[in-house]
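Troubleshooting entry. Yesterday's outputs looked truncated, so today I'm pasting the complete records for two proteins to confirm everything comes through intact. If either block looks cut off, that's the bug. Protein one:
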Amino acid sequence: MQTGVESDTVLDIDDRVEQLQGSDYLSFELDGELYGVDIQTVEEIRVWSPPTLIPRSPAFILGVINLRGMIVPVMDLRIRFQASQVDYHRETVVLILRASEMANGKIMGVVVDAVSDVVDQGEGQIMPPLGDSQVIAYVSGLLNVGERVMSLVNVDELLRIERWI
């Protein structure tokens, strides 16, 4: 069983942050916090509808949906990140994300509280993630957006099935 944060060397973190420079991000809300994913990983944004349950799946996998003939698993990020009580409302959406080809191009639905905006990095400098929590393993960097800090989610890490165990 894997727990905690996998160790990264400073070079690995610097390389991840460098790869993020100059990107645009789709920002979204999750338990009052601001997160973002590289806009190029977003296949589509869907309104919330309950997925078909899968027996004996991890608690954060809500089930599967049919996306134009393709079966796509759906992960609830609140549950995955061990945030507060999960409530589904009319702003709840499912982001259909695709990992990079280096990560086998996996596709998955990710339930978030609401989509906020597309954020251009502009002159903002992406900083390495800080701290030690279950969430930090999925965060590639931090970016100031107005008065808030947006955590940039690494989609390849989020969709790595080995992390589900």
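Protein two, checking that the full record survives here as well:
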Amino acid sequence: MSKGLNAMQLAQDVYGEEAMESLGTALSSVLQQGGVVFLEGDLGMGKTTLVRGVLKGLGYDGPVKSPTYTLVEPYELVNLDAYHFDLYRVGDPEELEFMGVRDYFTDQSLCLIEWAEMGRGILPDADLVVSITLLSQGRHLTFTGQTEKGAEALMELGARLTP
């Protein structure tokens, strides 16, 4: 976290796949300048569905699948390069060095990372962390801004989500 910045949080409950994708679309509106987003949650929590909504909101209209076996799936958008990482199968963070992971993190990229803890020590700090937990009939998402960029994105997202 940047010095002098207290982590900012926002919470949202969603019910169903369509609602998760819609939340991702809303999130995309505050990620148009890129950044690093960690997506935390157990298997089946909807991380990839959220990513699908983000990419859809950024103008991508093709299929979005979890890159469990490829580790990263690139998406070339009009003004941004987006990368969806799934590090679930990474055995050692050093594996990321061999694939040149640092090259993905530029000022013109949005990196959406599932299972970021598998890359600890190699990955840059997240601007935004999205934690997804199970509710009885849905999902509870907690968004935490960890940098100035992340905090600004959350303030804007909060304004968009408030009726």
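Both blocks look complete. Sanity check on protein two: DSSP finds four helices and seven strands in the chain.
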